[in-house]
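Exercise 7b. Backbone tokens:
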């Protein structure tokens, strides 16, 4: 049994909680609470180490547990759908088909053998990087900063994340006054509000610049204040479109091996004019809010 209080133990506790209440109405907040983490940071770590979003993992587990009823019983499909927390036959069918590649009606009619999705077992943190994709961290007391930019909710689901964030930045730059030449750009993430798992998982993304660098902000821009906090700051050299690899290293490798506890506050990326989507020598920073107790240091 993993040691409770460690990242390994906390994620295992969350997995156990999911299994105990698999067919209950679960929220991301309550699952994250079992791991002693905020919803956003828990979801990010969970996805990197388990390989699925929390929603997708629970969906696969529920469907796997009920697939025998779909295949080998005369129970109405809608009744099974309701047990699986779906409000309609159509929604259940879409989810079932995404999971197994066939509709429940066709699977039952043709007695199809469907794959199993058993509970996750074994150690959670097994990822090893031969070369760290980031250097650092250095620990900085951020005094707080007020930003001006564009905010939107983004669904935490596969390719949509990158696509939606890219669209936010496109809108941001299309409205940025031409005479403005900010030296730094900020992409801030945080999950706000309780979300039931079957309703989807979203977080708020904010693309902006320091208010001092925008003299005449357009009406579409809003303010966002990042409060004072201590941050572990990582330097990433590589194309911005691959920055997810850096986040995976931080959440799946650095945090579990350090003495740093991730804090419930904004996580953000800082870009400069040297940050480019495709260029290998592009420079960016990743700021992760932490509470450190003689945190282990990794030097690039």
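Sequence design result:
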């Amino acid at each position: 049994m993993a040691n409770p209080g460690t990242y390994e133990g906390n994620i295992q506790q969350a997995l156990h909680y999911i299994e105990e209440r698999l067919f209950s109405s679960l929220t991301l907040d309550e699952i994250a609470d079992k791991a002693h983490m905020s919803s956003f940071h828990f979801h990010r770590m969970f996805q990197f180490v388990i390989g699925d979003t929390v929603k997708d993992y629970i969906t696969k587990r529920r469907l796997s547990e009920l697939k025998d009823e779909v295949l080998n019983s005369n129970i109405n499909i809608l009744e099974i759908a309701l047990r699986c927390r779906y409000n309609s036959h159509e929604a259940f069918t879409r989810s079932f088909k995404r999971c197994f590649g066939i509709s429940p009606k066709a699977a039952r009619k043709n007695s199809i053998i469907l794959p199993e999705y058993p509970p996750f077992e074994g150690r959670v943190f097994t990822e090893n990087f031969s070369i760290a994709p980031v250097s650092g961290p250095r620990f900085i007391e951020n005094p707080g900063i007020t930003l001006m930019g564009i905010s939107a909710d983004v669904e935490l689901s596969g390719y949509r994340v990158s696509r939606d964030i890219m669209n936010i930045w496109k809108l941001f730059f299309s409205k940025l006054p031409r005479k403005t030449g900010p030296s730094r750009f900020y992409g801030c993430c945080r999950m706000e509000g309780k979300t039931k798992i079957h309703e989807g998982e979203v977080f708020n993304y904010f693309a902006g610049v320091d208010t001092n660098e925008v003299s005449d902000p357009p009406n579409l821009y809003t303010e966002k204040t990042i409060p004072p906090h201590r941050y572990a700051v990582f330097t990433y050299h590589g194309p911005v479109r691959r920055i997810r690899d850096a986040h995976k290293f931080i959440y799946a490798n650095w945090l579990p091996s350090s003495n740093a506890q991730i804090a419930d506050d904004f996580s953000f990326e800082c870009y400069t004019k040297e940050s480019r989507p495709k260029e290998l020598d592009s420079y960016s920073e990743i700021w992760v809010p932490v509470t450190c107790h003689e945190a282990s240091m990794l030097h690039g």
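Instructor comment: Confidence is low (pLDDT under 50) at residues 294-300. The longest helix spans residues 54-72.
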